Amino acid sequence: MINPWSSSQYFDYEKLIKEFGIEKPDDYFDYFMFRRKLIFGQRGLDYLEYAIKNKMKFNAMTGLMPSGHMHLGNKLTIDQIIYFQSLGAEVYIAVADLESYATRGISFERAREIAINEYIVNYISMGLKPCKIYFQSENFDTQSLAFILSNGTNMNELKAIYGLNDSSSMLHVNSPIIQAADVLHTQMRHLGGPRPTVVPVGVDQDPHIRLMRDLAKRLRIYSVKSDHGKISVFIKGTESPEKYIDNAMEELSASSYECTPNYEYRAIYIKNSKEEERIKIDMILANLEGGFNEYAFVEPSATFQKLETGLKGGKMSSSVPDSLISLNDSPADATKKIKHAVTGGKQTVEEQRKLGGNPDICPVFELYKYHSNDDKYVTRVYEECIGGVRMCGQCKSEAGENISKFLKNLSEKKDESFRKIDDYLIKRSS
Ligand code: SF4
Hints:
It contains 17 helices and ten strands. It is α/β, with parallel strands linked by helices. The strands form two sheets. A six-stranded mixed β-sheet has the order 1-10-5-2-3-4, with helices on both faces.
């Protein structure tokens, strides 16, 4: 079972793909995290591709837990968000201050300070353009939607997904529903209506993603199914289906689909459709449905990124400060931590020259692989390591210089980023 609340770090990514129905991304997205398989899996990313190819609006969504410091491992999600924003995504970021209050006793006021000083200012310095950042505790849309969504699931389902039992905290019941509301509310009518929405996550968050995708489907009236390329539309609910069928047929016919209604079975059969048109048909109907159903959501998409290894070889953890590089670390501190990192190198320089190192198990190599955009440079480091040309001491110094340059740049931009903050925070909803 994948558990979003466990602290385990290691995943067999191939096994996850096989056992949990996570799919591999295709090569549509030309971005280093896709090219280097740092994004190893996805769900529903074809919706995003469809939106981009057809110049449709789409969202990218993430959240932040306002506690501790932002570190290099958290940076990867924001790198992706900035990438999707560069492709045209409207970006939403939820500050999970309800969750930090419930789990860590952090007051809303303190959570606000942490979110701005430790996270949002860094996001802006990293290149995030103006977007919509909100606090869960102030967002009535997400709170009311969570209430609606809670009617779409039950304890049996949550027990099956999360392994909850009768003595589980209600927080573990509420938290996935609030997260689903965070993601899905971005498609509410006053925010632009149904849109493909991508959520970059670590694989430990997959149970939340599966639940929110199912909840989105359950709130739809039109359900589009494909059976070996034959596409049918079903009308859910107990209301008489006539008007829904007639309206859908009108929209689909306007896009040249030949439709046959079956009022008794609450269905429309589409004759001249192919499997690849399922998304187009779903989007036509989602947009139609958005006109009369406030909760007509397109199933959100997700990318799953690998977790960066801590400098001590295990998980990056704030309880082991030397395992991670905080974005508030001085270049000197970061360099020192890298100097003391474990590596995939050999015991002696002679052995390293003779046999080469093992970058595949080296957290120092991950600093290059996860944080440099330059494919040729990263390949060169890899080849020099396995070829025994590169020694660990020199390699650590070089990685330290790269990370120091990044940290210095962030710190130089800090004041300017603070001044821009109002372009990012959305006002309290009432
Ligand atoms: S040379 Fe660099 S990449 Fe290779 S094992 Fe040593 S530290 Fe890691």
